[in-house]
């Protein structure tokens, strides 16, 4: 297996354009999941130009074109996707993929046919959606999977499955169809908790993108030398219409860690202003961090 490539960021001008497009797409009436994930990939990989972005979309279109015409039931759709993506093309994941940034970048997952559960699920979702399947993402705790059937918004169209008929598949395991017991085991293995009905709700595209960025932030947090990756992942997350206020604190801490003391201190002070209304003690702690950061300027 080829060793992972070190991150090669785009130029500042290219990055600014990518972020503008990311924010615009995220705020559109119907955000496109593939487009958003590919823009994340372009922020990570400075070699991914417009031709590369288009090529990834074209490959997803091509794969969709190889599916049978409207297989029928949710189970038939699930089997068709498993046969095509999991068996014929070998899309799947292995434990080593968790150590690679490439495993969170859609263009690399399309190329390598390997990745994290959520990115492999994005491939399943985008190929199935292009073919007209009633498909949706399912953000189980610790392990993203894909659902086919009546719980999908896509299922409201002609020829859709009856409401409630659905099948779950695990793209990380090559598209294996999951029984109820399998889904329970995935949740129990990740959290020790029981599977709840709310965990099976369809995941909105922006929620999927937020989770992708969260994975990238986690990858970078375990590698202090990759703080630049953590910083752009936080900054993209802050462009999503809904995001946790604590992301501003995370960005401030990263700026301080990278030696940008004045900018980090300013961000810490701004975050303290936000937090003060609900927790004065935390706000004062954050202001203390800001004072420490400013002292490093001396």
UniProtKB/TrEMBL annotation:
Residues 1-27 are annotated as: Disordered. Residues 16-27 have a biased composition (Basic and acidic residues). Residues 58-214 form the Protein SirB1 N-terminal domain. It holds the Pfam family TPR_9. InterPro entries: SirB1_N (IPR032698). Residues 1-12 have a biased composition (Pro residues). Belongs to the UPF0162 family. PANTHER family: F-BOX ONLY PROTEIN 21, SI:DKEY-261L7.2. This is Transglutaminase-like domain-containing protein. The lineage of its organism: Bacteria, Bacillati, Actinomycetota, Actinomycetes, Kitasatosporales.
